[in-house]
Amino acid sequence: MEFLAFLVTQCLNALSQAALLFFLGCGLTLIFGIMRIVNFAHGAFFMLGAYVGYSTVHWTGSFWIALIVAPILVGGFGAAFELGILRRLYGRDGHAFLMVTFGLTLIMGEVIRLIWGVEALQVKPPAGLSDIVFILDEPFPVYRLFLVGSGIVVALLIWQFLERTRLGLLIRATSQNAEMVYALGTDVRLVRSAVFGIGCGLAGIGGVMAAPLVTASLGMAPNAVIDTFVIVIIGGMGSFAGSLIGAILVAFVQVFGTYYFPDFALAFMYLIMVTVLVVRPGGLLGKEA
Amino acid sequence: MTGSSGVSRRTLLGVTLASPVVLRHALGDEPIKIGMPCALTGPAGEVGEQMRRGAEFWIKSVNAKGGLLGRPIQLFAQDTAGDPATCVRKAQDAVERDGCRLLFGMTLSSEALAVVPKLADWNAIFMSSDNGDGRLTGSSFVPNFFRANTSGPMGTRAVALYLRTAGFKNFCALGMDYAWGHNSIGVFKDEVKKSGKNFIADIYSPIGTQDFSTYITKIRQSGADACYLVLQGDDNNAFLSQAQQYRLGDKVQLLTEIVDLNSIHAVGDAAIGLIGGSRYTFTFPGDANAQFVAAWQKEYGVVPDVFEGEQWQACQMLQAGIEKAGSIDADKLRPALETVEIDSIKGKVAMRACDHQAVQRGFMVKVVRKEGFKDPIPELIATFPADQITPACRQMTYDT
Amino acid sequence: MRFAIAAAALLALLPFGLPLYAMTLLTEALILGLFAMSLDLMVGYARLISFGHAAAYGFGAYACGNFLLHTTMPLPFAVLLAGVLGGIVAIGVGWVCTQATGVSFSMLTLAYAQLLYAVAFKWTPVTGASDGLAGIPRNPGPFGVTWWSTHAGFYYLALAFLLGAFVFCHALVRSPFGAVLRGIRENEAKTIALGYNTRRYKIAIVAISFGLAGMAGALYAPFAGFANTELLFWLLSGQVLIMVIVGGAGTLIGPVLGAMFFLYVQQKLSSYTDSWALFFGVIFILFVLFLPEGIWGLVLSRFKQKPV
């Protein structure tokens, strides 16, 4: 394989991975930025998205419907959890949220196992996306290109949502000064529920998109949690742009690092994380010092 | 009652009440207790579930025929979540609290390695049905450990023997970056060199890798015409799915140490064309297997998978040993087990006294689409005699 | 303090009534109790939430395992030495982690723990890689004492370490050093304004905490007879944090109770159902919602004593 083809395919590999990481990281950073909640259950919502996606495809035969249904259901469940449980904990210590979301991870993991069983489940990519294209004579899956495209689209959508819509404005304002927003007459609690729901919904859509690559399985949650934390910390807790940068950085380092230094594959992410945190404790674009 | 199925309890009661022996021997007929700490949740959950099901099926059939040595069998299956510390705790409970003298389970080799040093103190015998680590009958051998299943080296050996006559010349290997991956690829590398072929590169992926694109690129670039895979569970599923998406199979033949139905079910058509060793497949020939598969299908509605079959074989061997010894006492059972020989679902299987490894044949399968089955199935393509497959006593590698 | 003495007496007498397997479980509970208590120093007294405490535990286990396997060092010395070693290494870790505060601090501890996990996974000569160290012996103590090879013997050894650590921690938090920690916990800015180099205090408490956790891990290795990478995994860090919170942070005794509670519930639940993780999660959430001061915090408030 000549070098240019190698470089291009590896970059595309990294971008497709970055897209999935971005879905996860963006949701988590949104939740942290607005609510100061470290959502330990984020990986579980990701996993739930994959399983809901599986069932939707199973019943309707359509992957596209799953892409719509899964984030709505998963996000809805997230919002409901925020309403029912998390809401009681505002004003308490940060580690209360941590414990509760850790407990939620345990519960969700087990409930998913009870409903869908312990075996991994196949989610096929839609027929239109199952093919390959030849990039400089090397085969490359169309589905991964779809991932890259979706990542870009979602990033743009969220950016516009935060910049242009009323809810987006409220979200940004709440992250800076929740009391003021409340004093100005907005029910901050609704904003929070919405944000938690959106964050979980993003994780859910990430799960559906990841499923054709890795199958829907119970191991998804623990793997996702650590990855997501690393990205968000590197990019800066609460920074949307940071989660994008973090995802891309981590993906590229993983893909090229694993290629040239396979022995350190496991350690890479943490090395970056430590380096970034030591140099800029708030993350690359973060506000929290 | 912890862990045993409701059926056993009813059967126990039925057998006890129905037996006139009870009236005469008021103190006898204490159930034979078997402890089974295994991974029922967590990444190895699929395997542990199969093992438990296999044991329950055996116990049900034995108890229905009046039990073992006239005594009903009682199973104490507990979840370890694949954690060695929990496994030791559960095994301890089984022995010290529940009074088990016999043990099954211990899904992961790391769990087994943590527990076996304690078997002597407990005076308990452990019959393994899935632990593949070569050291369990080698450097980590203890007298109370018995392995009824195909070990890792034996699985690799089957693949290697098959490749001697297949057309491939250049090999690479991809394995999970821990003991099993390294040991298996080590044996494979050795075998390739012995057969005069070319081993190009070995690659290791961290456990829990989700994106295999880089590894697929490496395999493609290596110039190999066949690649030996030592992957399991989620990693295996992810790799096979993605390899198919990159059409890797068009260029490189994928070989694997173990082929199992769970994985095929998870990846569907992506598994077609895979060639690998099989510790057990429902398509194995012989009457014993045909009967087992039919009975299993009647009970569960599906065909049995790898570890269900292996567990059945392990149970059969234990049963033969106990019947031969007339006792479950470790000092009497051990010598009996050392010379036990059965007509198993895999053909003739005999336990070897020097390292407690069951000597058995090796099988190669290829995953194909077949009429009448929803998923692709593993089809038998080669069988190797037991003496060629099983390594020498306490060894993990082969001389010829 | 009265409670502590009463509890210690109770624990000392328990083995006389218990069957073997229960004593084994209780021994493990004591070891985990020491582990949780060490974390309480950071979490309860300095509000430094460590997500990487398993690293200290695993480090201690591997260090002690190596001492016992490759030398004839008596067991108690191996445990102590492993703990001290862990504490010294933790000075460096503490220095790095305290560059940040708040959530970033916690994340750094997590990163350090995962790094150690990754290293241990590959470093075969010292850690046995993914297999871990097996067959760790309980080396005879000074003067040829072999008491800890028995169930009861090891139980009392673990109890001795736990009580010794408790006395040390109790004295520490009541000392001027402890007062500064409380200052850092309540209002770090003010404490700095008062002229204290809070960073040094933080590093010190990290080192002490990690050292004690290392001692707990060092006890675990000969107890179980093995050490493996699971001891370094972040799941264990999460579990010990739960023990501290459920038991009652900032009380020293609470986390020990939390550890016992956790182990007991896990054992009991998992013998009744495969879905034990589900009930576990529900119990935690209920604790956080309705009993945030933890078991011991509740007991103390009933007796109108405020946790220090």
Largest sheet of chain A: 2 strands, antiparallel
Q: Write the H/E string of chain B, N to C.
A: HHEHEHEHHEEHEHEHEHEHEHHHEEEEEH
Q: Label the structural class of chain A.
A: mainly alpha
- Helicity of chain B, as a percent range: 40-55%
Query: What is the helix tally of chain B?
Result: 15
Largest interface: A-C, 45 and 39 residues
The oligomerization state is: heterotrimer
In short:
The complex is a heterotrimer of chains A (289), B (400) and C (308). By secondary structure, chain B is an alpha/beta fold. Chain B is 42% helix and 19% strand.
Describe the protein's architecture and organization.
- The complex is a heterotrimer of chains A (289), B (400) and C (308).
- With 289 residues, chain A is an all-alpha fold.
- In chain A, 75% of the residues lie in helices and 3% in strands.
- Chain A has a single domain, classed as ABC transporter involved in vitamin B12 uptake, BtuC.
- The model of chain A has no long low-confidence stretch (mean pLDDT 88).
- Chain B contains 15 helices and 15 strands.
- With 308 residues, chain C is mainly α.
- Chain C has one domain: ABC transporter involved in vitamin B12 uptake, BtuC, CATH 1.10.3470.
- In chain C, 75% of the residues lie in helices and 0% in strands.
- Chain C has 14 helices and no strands.
- Chains A and C meet through helix 4, helix 9 and helix 11 of A and helix 5, helix 11 and helix 13 of C.
